[in-house]
Amino acid sequence: MKNRGNKLLLGFLVFSLLILLVSIFYTEDPSVDLREEKVDKEDPSVSSSEEQVDKENPPSGLGEEKIDKENPPTGLSENLLNMNPNPILDHPSAGRRTVGQRKISLDSYDLKVETATHWKLPGRRLEEISGLAMTLDDHLLAHNDEKAVIYEIDYRKGEIIKAFQLADMKAPVNGDFEGIATVKDQVYLVTSSGRIFEGSRGADGESVLYNIYATGVGMDYEIEGLAYDASQRVLLLMCKSPRREELKEQLVIYHWSTDEKQLIEDAHIVIPVIEFTRHIEGKEFQPSGIERHPVSGNYFVIAARQKAIAEITPSGQVVAAKRFPAEWHRQPEGITFAADGALIIADEGSGKKARLTLYPVSENR
Fold first, then answer.
1. CA 351 to CA 1: how far, in whole Å?
2. What is the C-alpha to C-alpha distance for residues 337 and 91, in angstroms, rounded to an integer?
3. Backbone angles phi, psi at 314, to 5 degrees
4. In this structure, how many other beta carbons lie within 10 angstroms of the beta carbon of residue 81?
């Protein structure tokens, strides 16, 4: 019995030792359940990875919102791709973007009386209208020849909305003003002698202080037009009558930097007059206004005496030229473009009321 009791005791001790060893073993090397818990922390399971995906790839609604910002909808992408490659539009309105989907040239305009909108401007204040310019918010500005009074015109109704002037005191500046251009909220006027006047847009009846810049161009040419080329950040000074014999038979456009406030040397364009006259009957082309097309980037030049208009590239290549209907255009002096792409021409009154003509972009061209 004693031996049997000793054997039972020994067996119990061995069994207890085995249990102790097993406990120690499982403490140092966790079971499958414990290892899965460890994996959940260091390398997430399926449910945890789904939570991570939710953060990096949001659900349908949130994901679509992100795509809208980074990848525009198909329609907008196509509009941007169809726009002219020139990255700068002078008037970034909805109308401009619509027009920007098309390639527009001088041939895109039917210069016919029956397709145009005509206005006789009220009163005598703009009888000698000489220049036109469009603002960024699609407001039409115009000026007369002799005083620095700037008028805002509702070109859809042919009405004068307001007027302000560049002046030191009360009286506006006097001068032979031949062109107007806008750069953001700044307004520029140029005289026939090549002096540039710079001021801000004013309220109705306001007198605005101004700066004057001498360009020196007037020593060689009479200036007859002004425009802004946003792609180069320059004012375009259109020259008309040369003051020296050797300068005749050529049309010259100078570049004046709006940043440096000075002419850019050796940047002017020289075009033989014959490049214009070969497109129209006659031997002369005497420019009276210039404007940069906000979509194509080409320059449109009008000639008052020839009642003609031409399109040229910024490098000076004459693309096309044709005449206006003579029965409506007495003396075209101003040119600009509306937000919907319409070509706007201003004619001096020549003793009568000045006129404003809008030629829409043809749907068939």
1. 148
2. 9
3. -60, -20
4. 8
Residue 201: partners with Cβ closer than 8 Å, 6 or more residues away: 135, 164, 182, 185, 186, 187, 208
Q: Which residues contact 153 (CB under 8 A, 6 or more apart)?
A: 121, 140, 141, 142, 159, 160, 161, 356
Q: Which residue has the tokens 């020296």?
A: 244
Exposed/middle/buried for 342, CB within 10 Å: 0-12, 13-18, 19+?
buried
Place of tokens 């004068």: 160
Q: Which of 315, 316, 296 is nearest to 106 (CA)?
A: 296
Helix (H) or strand (E) holding 69: helix 60-70
**Quick one: 74 exposed, middle or buried, by C-beta within 10 A (0-12, 13-18, 19+)?**
exposed
Q: What is the pLDDT of residues 128-166, one digit of tens each?
A: 999 999 999 999 999 998 999 999 999 999 999 999 999
333/58 Cα distance (integer angstroms): 60
229: closest CA among 297, 280, 281?
297
d(CA 309, CA 104): 15
- The helix/strand/coil state of 333 is strand
Closest by Cα among 303, 344, 337 to 322 = 303
pLDDT tens figures, 94-110: 334 344 456 899 999 99
Q: Which residues of 111-146 are buried (b: 16+ CB within 10 A; e: fewer)?
A: beeeebeebebeeeebbbbbbbbbbeeebbbbbbbe
Q: Report, as an integer, the average pLDDT of 249-255.
A: 95
Residue type for 19, please? I
Closest CA to 299 of 288, 315, 283: 315
